Structures are given as C-alpha cells and as structure tokens.
Amino acid sequence: MIGIVIVEISEMSVFNESCMGVFIFLLSFSLLIKILWKWALYFIILCFILLGSYRQNQVNGNSSSYFIKESAEVLFVAKVIDLGNKKQWRKSVVEIQKVINGPKELRNKKSVLFVNKRNGAIKKGDILLIKTEIKPIKNKNNPGGFNAELYWKSKGVYSMGFVSAESFLWIDNQKPNILYSASSKVKSSIKNHLSKYLKKEYLGVSIAVLFGDKSIISEETTNSFSNAGAMHLLAVSGLHIGIIYMMLINFFSIFSKYISRNKALAISVLVLWAYALITGFSPSVTRAVFMFSMLGIAKSTSKPYNSFNVLFLTAFVLLLINPLYLFDIGFQLSYLAMLGIYLFYKPFVSLFNFKNSFLNWIWKGSILGVSAQLMTLPLTLYYFNSFPNYFILTNLGIMLLSGALLSLLMILLSIKYWPLLSRAISVLVAGVLFVLLYYIKWIEKLPGSVATGYYLSFSVAMFFLCSIVLLLKTRANKRNIFYFSFIYICILGYLVYNRHENINKQEVCIFNNSNFVMTVRVGNDLLCFYEGDKTKLKKAKFLARSYAKIHPGKLTYINVANKKIEIINDKNKIRIISKKMIKEILINNKMYKVLSRPQKTKTPCTVIYMPWIKEGNGHHLNKKAISIDLQ
Description:
By secondary structure, the protein is α+β, with helices and mostly antiparallel strands. The chain has 18 helices and 19 strands. The chain has helices at 2-10, 17-32, 37-59, 148-153, 178-195, 200-211, 219-228, 238-253, 261-278, 283-300, 307-321, 329-349, 357-384, 391-414, 419-445, 458-473, 478-504, 534-548; strands spanning 72-83, 89-101, 110-116, 126-136, 157-163, 168-173, 386-388, 450-452, 507-510, 517-522, 525-530, 554-559, 564-568, 573-578, 582-587, 590-595, 606-609, 619-620, 626-629. The strands form four sheets. The protein has a six-stranded mixed sheet with strand order 13-14-15-16-17-18, with no helix packed on it. The longest helix has 28 residues, at 357-384. Mean pLDDT is 80; it is low at 11-36 and 62-66.
C-alpha cells in the first residue's frame, strides 16, 4: 500500500523495470541473511513497497502522462465495457482501442462517456466510432460534493465526455464471453421471476439485496436507508456473503453423514464464486468472496490460524491484482470494518455475559456493530460529512431481518417452477420487506437520526483513526494511555468545535454548476435559489442537500428566473436580480455579478464567471464554488 501511495503522490515513472529488479534482488538478499532477522525484516518491507510501486506504475501505463491534462477534440474507436443507468444520456465506460485524431496517449485507456441513445440502445461489447470532446475528470469542489476524481480513479478511468446521437456510429459488436452471457441470462431470469410476485418498491430492494443494483429503488427509499445507516444492506458485501456462507454450511451439516466437512467447505466456496459471477464480479463481492474463500481454506486445514493474516493476505492479493482498489471507498471501509471486528470484538464482548440468550444476542450484535463502526468512523465523517446516530438499532434490525430476507429470496428462486409454492413464499418475502422498510423509515424519523456538520481533512481523519487504535490497544503502559487519551480528547474537541462552527455559519454559496444555483444560510433556514425547469430543480436539490450535510438547515427552493428577490433580517440585507445573462446579487451593500458570458461591468463589483467561461478577472466557478460570509 505504501508503494502505491508513493507513486500516486510523486507520479514517479522511474519505478518500472528497475523496481522489479531491485525487488527480486532485495528479497533474495533478505533470505540469505537469516541470521540478522531485524535487517531481513526491513529488507522484506522495502521489497513489498517496491512491488507496490511497480504494480501501480504498470496500471498507470508506465508514464506520468497516463491521462490527458486538457480538453481535446478526439476521433477514436472504442469498445463499450460497462453500462450504467438507462436514462437518455447513458453512462458508459469504454476502452479506447484506436485514436484516429487526437492525443495518442488515450489509446488502450478507459473513459466514461455519457451517450445520447436517441438513435438506438448501445450494448456491452459494441464497437463505436466516436467524435467528441474528451476532458480530464475533475472535481467541481462544491461543499459536500461528490469526489468524482477518486471514484473514477479507483476504476482506472481518468477522462470523460458527452456523445450526442449524431457523434457516434456502430462499427461492430463483440459478443461477450460465455460466462458473462450465462450470468446475464441468469440475472435477467431472476429479475423476471421476482417481478411476477413483488410490487415495484419491494422488487427494487430485493434486486439491490441480491445483486447490489439500486437502479429500481426510489430516491426516497435510498435516502431512508442512507439516513438510517443501512446502505450496506443494498450493496452486496461481506454481510450478504457471510449470511449465504453460513446458510450453506448449516445446510450441509444436515447431511454430515454423507458429506465431509472439507467437502462442504469446498462446495460452499464454489457456490460463493458462482454467486460472484452472477453479480458481475463487482469489487465488493469479489473481495468478500475471496476473503471467505481464504477463511474456508484456513478452516479446512484444521490447524490454528490468525484472522489478521488471512485479512491482510486477501488485501495484499487484491491490491497486487489491481492497485487501484486502494482508492475504492468500499474497499477502504470494508477492510477497516473487518479490522475493527478482529481488534475489538472479543475484548468488548467479554465485558458482559448475559444468561438470557436474547439479551446475549442483542449484546453481541451491538458490540459487532460498534467494533466495525469504531474503525470506519473517521473515514465515514471524511467522505460523507454525517453520521447515523442510531446505527446500533439499525444493525440489530438488519441482523434480524437480512438473514430471513436472503433465505426466503433464495428459497423463492429455487422453487421457480412451482407457482403455488412461489406465491406462498413471496407473501413471506413481502412481509419481511414491509417490516424492514417500516423499521428503516421509523429510525430515519427519530429525533437526531443523522448528525451532520462534520468536515474533516484527510490528515485529521487518519490521525483520528490512529488515535482510536492506539488508545484502545494500549493497556500496559499507563503513560502511553495518558498520552493517547489526551490526543484522542483533543481530536474530539476539534471535531465538536469544527461542527459547531459549520452548523452556525451564515453564508452565501454560489455553486460550480452548469445552471445558476445559490444557497443562502440565514439562522436555521437554508434557502436554495435556482433557475430552470424540474430537471434543473432536481440538480439544485442534489447540490443543496450535499451542502446541508456540512451546513445543515431547513431547505426551501425558490426559482429566481427573471425575478427580483430580497432577504432582510436584523444583520443582513440580500437582494437578487435575475436577468437572462447576468445575476446581480447585493449582499450588505456589496455588489456581486454572476456572468453567463464575458462582458465589461460599469459599476464596481466582484465578478463571478459561470463554469464555461475560462478567461477574465474575477472568480471562475469552473475551479470551485464561492462562499461569501454573512454577519
């Protein structure tokens, strides 16, 4: 991991063939000096740092210029390798096979294109001739905004473009391999079967639980799961794989006279990999299945094994295959959660032992959630700026219902050709889903269900994480306990102070967006001004809700198209005059003008340019949003 980070920070391309040569030399040398174990350990650590650097350089294309720096008009041939939503502009990941006109470094690189599908639906495997502007993926730097650079970087994608219906032609279609075709047919068959018995809301949750596909779920339901801290249920991960693994082991235990323990473990692992194939080998499923496969192999030896070694081995192998997994948020959170469980579950759960089995189950379930949350807390606050306060309640409900839901869904799929029995089981599935959704929405509506207002830098998040581990694992040395406790309290104090400042901050924010969007936070109210139709309102809501995670308030949306609006309170006076190509904003007698095209201003003012304007003196929104403090 250190080697991967070194390459990313420095963009060094010198670590390529030389890296591998030095790696082999040092590893060989370290094995020859077994007498000096201390030095051998240092050499081995250095070896793996160099190995990480070597693999990252391979993935980056052996060059520091593995992605384009500026926008460029490009004519190229590309193969569609992944498809996203089914909206008019369909998100498609392509691999550029040939560059006819444009930057040659794009060849054999991935790009994400938003393709207008008016002249027909594109499919995975299509070979397209495309002419469009390709530009590097850059964050818009809006408060609480999505980190697009990090997300696409984890997938090896560094550029993007928009392709109109007139800007591409079909050349050919490469049929996917047999395994992919078979898995697609199985997945499609499962969706069709479930749609016969479940209504749309329940069908969406079922498909998400089985395959991690959230495209059918309504935005309201997704927000409810997010606010309750239950999104991991809708993304196939270790929870689902663990439940399926235990179901298989328990099932084979019934036939223990005929199937040996090792055979049961082997069959279970094979079934898990078949399930991973059906889900499309998504990163979360692959790492979870690989982890349980390693655990199965370790158990089959009937020898003691170290859970930490298995955990780190799976991480090492996955990063060796694809170093970019390190930048995947799911990868980071899942391994931190498992590390938290291995570190803290046993010490914490041994503090109490209830004679009542139900109370003992609640205690163990609560500690399991707390152990995972302790390690993921810093990164949760860093990435999402919020925290679900009732996560223990959520986890208990999910523990109780997710096993029943997955079991019933598996039974429903296995009795596909018995309609009457399928109808009976589908009623039970619908009952579990009703209880699950009611429970999630109940938690969401509890007072203070989500704590917002957190804004951490990455360095603070890492410092916070290290202080948690060191504090909880330091027992013997009282002086160290005092030091780490002091550091931990200081960080908590900083978080509380920072959150208080964010919650009470009064400001105007103008966003980096293709249409005018501005928020005004006055008191506990958060006013969002936008211009345009319902589509523009939807985008404004997304920006305002993201902003509200850091600076919360009661949201109100106002369309300012060709209007004059005034906001007056005891301390501030704000006037907004919206015209076709200009927005005049007077804040406490200071004038700001948001321009949609370059032009000279006659009155003294601060000029703010919309994102597509790159020249002129003033603030350019294409770099980041602008915040203006109020009194």
